[in-house]
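User: For my dataset I need records formatted as: sequence, then structure tokens, nothing else. Please produce one.
Assistant:
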Amino acid sequence: MKKSVSLAAVVFTLSAHAADPAAALPKLHVDPARVAVAGISAGAYMATQAQLAYPEVFRGAALIAGGPYDCAQDSIATAVTTCMKGTPAPDTAALVKLALARAAKGEIGPLEKLAGAKVYILHGKQDPVVAESVAHAAVDFYSALKAAIPALSTLSVTWDGSHDFTHTFPTESAGTACDKVGTPYIGKCGFDGAGAVFQALYGKPVHKSGAAKGELRRFDQDALRSGGTDAFLADAGDVYVPPACLKGRRCGVLVALHGCQQNLDSVGDAFVKDAGFNRWADAYDVAVLYPQIRSGVAANPKGCWDWFGYSGADYATRNGVQVRWLVGALTALGRPAH
């Protein structure tokens, strides 16, 4: 796509990526009060890890088909039993105690910073992969945090389990049959999951929604390694920038985390283009960051975000390589570092 001198005069389309894989992230005027994270399945577990590790950064979190913070406890066996099937059930009281202890030691952020934050937990009634009891345990976890920390009376936790979809990202009309479980894990369910996420985390839209008119850029993820440490990400990721943000308007950022087998290696642009975030991004003046995990790692062959410990024992803390990468990417995108 050829760019004119004036970005304001360009009509942006999604017919092609606007940058080559080696490009840097664009520098935006980011409103730190409007930075949030959303994820499905493994991405949902990563979303709650990111919010607990850096509550001062992630002011909202949407969890689709995921459970409570650090449910797996560095164990793949626990991940596939307790944290997916709910047998035995997640011990939310123990997980809250763990989070409080980690916060006291500075291993995760000051949990008082969750005051005023929003959490939206969405689960399909027909999901055979992650049990409803597991997803609701995330509600119980955040509710118990509120009870344990008086300053969190303004933390908003919303449960949404009334929709009839399976283990998929629900859309109105994009993707495969809603009852299918499998790639690209995007289903035609007659329900706009992306719109629900935006409304839950950001309230009413600034503009009317319509076809996405912003710019989808591919960027170099390796350039954002913290200290050169491998975060098990793919070489390239994507970012969607609404027209208003390209013109320099103050904008929010939503970090959208794919599930297992839903990365670029597995499904191409399906999650990035079909989940529905981009058109809502225009309506809210919120850029969408689509970081990508790489497939083929021996301990992570399906390209999952690390919610069970393959990247190191500190994966669910501020020292976790993936959550540090996310915070670094937000800084590169324009979120003030302090």
